[in-house]
Design a protein that fits this description.
This protein has helices at 17-28, 40-46, 51-62, 68-85, 93-102, 115-125, 148-157, 171-180, 212-216, and strands spanning 4-7, 106-110, 133-135, 164-168, 183-187, 202-204. The chain is of the alpha/beta class and 218 residues long. A six-stranded parallel β-sheet has the order 3-2-1-4-5-6. Helix 1 (17-28) packs across helix 4 (68-85). The longest helix has 18 residues, at 68-85.
Length: 218
């Protein structure tokens, strides 16, 4: 029996492509690069990963010689400024939260994003009260596609992985959810390089399409 829903955040709950890209571009500018200049294959691989892991990959790809902690802090500060301007929710977000809460399902977030960023998003959208637990990229030693993020979320909810449904948009997140033993619904988005959603238990085009029947059918 399903007892909880675990949300990913970026491009699942919120359309964060614009502020995320702006933050990457700002820290790469001094090196003469932009995020869009990375090979599509690499950007596809990075989707859903922790920012520190992405920055490490970029640092190595272009041999930038950056200190990752400094790189990460500078990028985080820029991202927070961008998010304060605007961070639009994805279609159906509030509706889905209300539906799950009404049906007495526990709700959590398990994101690769940083703690400060996620806290700001929840405050901006005024939805913090919906969540019984929040796991961020800062809480784990190994990010997605490793299952640690979702295993921690399941533990925080006090449930079995088989009792939880993960909502994801990225290949790395789907792999992490399935490795953790959770059910997974993939939600397509138009803002990231095309992802392989085939390992998910169900695929929808929007949070609006998820009903209690969808959840109970898994």
């Amino acid at each position: 029996m399903i007892k909880a829903i675990i949300y990913d955040l970026d491009d699942l709950m919120v359309n964060s492509a614009k502020p995320q890209t702006a933050a990457f571009n700002a820290v790469l500018k001094k090196h003469g690069y932009s995020y869009g200049k990375l090979p599509v294959k690499l950007r596809r691989k990075f989707t859903g990963m922790r920012i520190k892991d992405i920055l490490t990959g970029i640092n190595e790809h272009w041999n930038l010689g950056e200190n990752i902690e400094s790189f990460y802090k500078r990028r985080t500060n820029i991202l927070l400024r961008e998010v304060k301007k605007n961070i639009p929710p994805m279609p159906g977000l509030r509706k889905s939260l209300q539906l799950f809460k009404k049906n007495k399902l526990k709700i959590a977030i398990a994101s690769s994003g940083g703690t400060k960023y996620i806290s700001l998003v929840l405050m901006k959208l005024k939805i913090k009260h919906y969540f019984d637990g929040v796991i961020t990229g800062d809480d784990v030693k190994i990010g997605k596609p490793h299952p640690q993020t979702y295993l921690l979320a399941v533990k925080k909810l006090g449930l079995k992985a088989s009792e939880c449904v993960v909502l994801e948009d990225a290949t790395n997140g789907i792999i992490a959810a399935k490795k953790a033993g959770c059910k997974c619904i993939a939600v397509r988005n138009l803002y990231t390089p095309k992802q392989d959603l085939s390992k998910a238990d169900n695929i929808v085009s929007s949070l609006n399409q998820i009903t209690i029947k969808t959840i109970n059918s898994l």
